[in-house]
Automatic annotation (TrEMBL), chain A:
Its main location: membrane. PANTHER family: BRANCHED-CHAIN AMINO ACID TRANSPORT SYSTEM PERMEASE PROTEIN LIVH, HIGH-AFFINITY BRANCHED-CHAIN AMINO ACID TRANSPORT SYSTEM PERMEASE PROTEIN LIVH. InterPro entries: ABC_transp_permease, BCAA_transport_permease. This is Branched-chain amino acid ABC transporter permease. It holds the Pfam family BPD_transp_2. It comes from Litorivita pollutaquae.
Amino acid sequence: MDFLNAVVALSNYVVVPAMAYGSQLALGALGVTLIYGILRFSNFAHGDTMAFGTMAVVMVTWAFQAMGVSIAPLPTALLALPFGIAICAALVLGTDRLVYRFYRAQKAKPVILVIVSMGVMFVLNGLVRFIIGVDDQRFGDGARLILSARDFKKMTGLDEGLVIKTSQGLTVLTAVIVVAWLYWFLTHTRSGKSMRAYSDNEDLALLSGINPERVVMITWIIVAALATIAGTLYGLDKSFKPFTYFQLLLPIFAAAIVGGLGSPLGAIAGGFVIAFSEVTVTYAWKKVLVYLLPEGLEPTGLVQLLSTDYKFAVSFVILLIVLLFRPTGLFAGKSV
Amino acid sequence: MNQMSKYRAPFLFGLVAVAILGTGFLQSWNSALLIVNMGLVSAVMALGVNLQWGFAGLFNVGVVGFLALGGLATVLTSMPPVAEAWSAGGLRILAGLALGAATLTLAVITFKHMQKSRTRTAALLVILVGGFFLFRFVFDGGVAAVEAVNPAATGYLGGLGLPVLLAWPMGGVLAAGAAWLIGKTALGLRSDYLAIATLGIAEIIIAVMKNEDWLARGVKNVIGLPRPVPYEVDLQSDPAFVASAANLGIDPVTASTLYVKLGYMALFTVVLLILFWMAQRALHSPWGRMMRAIRDNEVAANAMGKDVTARHLQVFILGSAVCGIAGAMMTTLDGQLTPGSYQPLRYTFLIWVMVIVGGSGNNLGSILGGMLIWFLWVQVEPMGHFLLGLITAGMADGSALKSHLLDSAAHMRLLTMGLILLLVLRFSPRGLIPEE
């Protein structure tokens, strides 16, 4: 019984939150890694693209809520998601047309594109703050929990409760669907295949008649969709605050690099590696250990390895370790 | 290559001077001097980043971390030591840190001297895990004891109680030490990876400064740092000063604030000129030519027998040290250390805008970029208010859109900085004063 309680406590405080956070990071890292694979630069504006897409979703959600449209028990934001994706795609395509295309035509060095993306980051950051402000915005509605602690305890008769929030369930489910779709798209459609070809060998792809501008356009649309979905799920799970999204840039990049930049599979693996390590290292293990250890040996402290304020530090220590021992990441990424 | 007009740099500097004088005449001389002082500090930061990026092509986006270390150095050098805290747990903290360092060293030695095997992995695990718990056991006790000492006012170990001007070179040394550690591990990485690694390390430095209260009070901030210039109140009660202010026709309060700011300005100008002279000498020396050769073609420079990694490490340390000095100067100017205020957008990416806009690879350009962008950063907000005031003038008072637009004026500066960066990169990619 104690062992089962320990397992439930562990799932409740570590596994479930880390699964949700990992899915959000994985979706974000997929966007970063696709841009790196196709456009060949690290997009510093990705966090702010996520913020912009989420902002669009939030505003459409509010409009729906005002009109009384709802798909309860699911959050209205899901209904607003396609509109948010469309707005975000329009934005990134506009940015590409106005900003990035010029440097692509010049065949500018990747590092110049990174600096350019810094400029885009500033503009998007300012734009989002300008439109929606800097405060926390809550936009989740519908049922809050899939499984409440009380129901779980009644069902199983255990002392520990397991809580699964709707947003967490939705996050994992959506992530699975999106990743499966992306996999199918990249391996089974003409556009997906041409994207992979372009990423593997640009010259050869051009020689075989692939239109680079089309590949780039499709990439940006997919990236906008991934960013908006990741951002919306994160916002539903926690809350929407522009500055948090800028900070998310760090774990997202860590996930993409740990997995291997340019490798979609790696991005997913990296997202979960980062999320699980952040959560386990900053979790206070006392509760689990009290169940597992015999009486008398129970810990007196919280048994928290690091305070939660260091969670970003955790992702970077992992990043550094992976880079030192496997310089191209877990799933051999590329380097331009 | 088109030759740059020799009047270009003086003209641009003249423009910045006119802008600042305009601030003096239209707003107040106090705000003008504030802009100059922070502009000078920004120019030093830009010089540091230019050493790394302009000279050697190193992509360091961890500037804010080195600035924060400079700020930390100011506290550690100039604040008086807290004797009570030292006796409560100072030695225990030092012992804990030594244990932590010893654990890491032992792990590295084991890793290097044992064959790759299961035994090695097991030994490493034992050393790291055991060392970690030992470290936490010794260290946490010391921290708790130190932080319990009068937490409202001190609760930290304090500094060395030395003159605050010494903190500036100390900031450089501290930042250089950190840069050596970082460079040893991260400089082998390619440009994009190095960027992310430095971004993360800066975040770690800030996190440590925010959370380790025993070191510099964390987010409780250290206030009332000693100053290298006199205090306004002292000046105002000094009859000689009041008399000379009256001679100039300024009231003593304004005169004292101006006098203090002019004092800072003189100190900052001296530091900036020394660093600028050194950077210019370095740029035109054989060493500078070698750095640029490495920047432009690493493979060729390597084939010529240049040790690329060692040179990169060298210039990374030098540039970071300059950033550390600038960080110490900034904290001295503020008179307080507030770890919560170190934002990457403001202290890393804005410095990058300064370097790129000024002209990467050109020291004079970096100084210009530092002054100009800082001026804009300060003045865009009032300009935004004015502009939005014009736009919304025709709207009905009390309309939601009007009040929203007016409230949002504060966010104009990020937008403007991004636009400036994008426009410069597009139409004048080598900056306002390009590299010679």
